[in-house]
Structure formats: C-alpha cells, structure tokens
Amino acid sequence: MKTIFEKIIAREIPADIVYEDNTCLAINDIDPQAPTHILIIPKKVIPRVGDAHADDQSVLGHLLLTASKVASASGLQEGFRIVINNGPQGGETVPHLHVHLLGGRQLTWPPG
Ligand code: 5GP
Q: 52-64: per-residue pLDDT in tens?
C-alpha cells in the first residue's frame, strides 16, 4: 500500500510542489499550522527516522540542508522550526519520513 506521499512523489495525486531534486520533494502542507508550513519528503521510502539505517545518512542530511535552503527561499530570515514526528506518541500520521518546516509567526515552546 502506497502512502499519500508516495502517491504525490509518483504524481498520482496533486500537491503544491515548492522544490524538487533527485533526492526529495518539498510541498506545502494541506493543513498548515503556520503561515509557512512545508514538508520535505525523501523520494526513498523510509517510514520514519526511527527506521532509518546508516546508509540513509546522506538522505537524512540532505533533508535538513534542503529545509534550510527552502526556508531561505521562503523568506524565513527571522527564524523557523524543523519538526520530525516519529510514531503514534510523536504525532506521526503519515508513515513516510518527512520534515516539517514551520515559520512566518512566533513559535512557542514547549510544543503541544
Ligand atoms: P505527520 O503528522 O505524519 O508528522 O505529518 C503529516 C502531514 O501531512 C500533516 O501535517 C498533514 O496535514 C499533511 N498531509 C496529509 N495529507 C496530505 C496531502 O494529501 N497533501 C499535503 N500537501 N499534505 C498532507
């Protein structure tokens, strides 16, 4: 069973794509929690960061570097937050690894 993100990567369902390269895709979240809420999604199927292996190191690093690049391109010079939800208690709802990039308003701590 393909996840929603695999279907988006395969162009089987539409998404608002803001960045793409050979390794990942960045899309606007369908239910934004901040003025900017972008998901950076690896094309390789890795269910969650807790299931990543040593040979995924370059993919994991690429996701953070891409989040930083997309943040700059999105005008988030005042700051931003990167979130990765892992497992049910972590708030994960789509079992395909993704980095949330949030910004455009003052973010509070602790998170909910
Ligand atoms: P998670 O809860 O797994 O960390 O994050 C999943 C995210 O995917 C949520 O923020 C949710 O709004 C977003 N999402 C779920 N389905 C879709 C979709 O079909 N399109 C887009 N663009 N985002 C989605």
A: 999 999 999 999 9
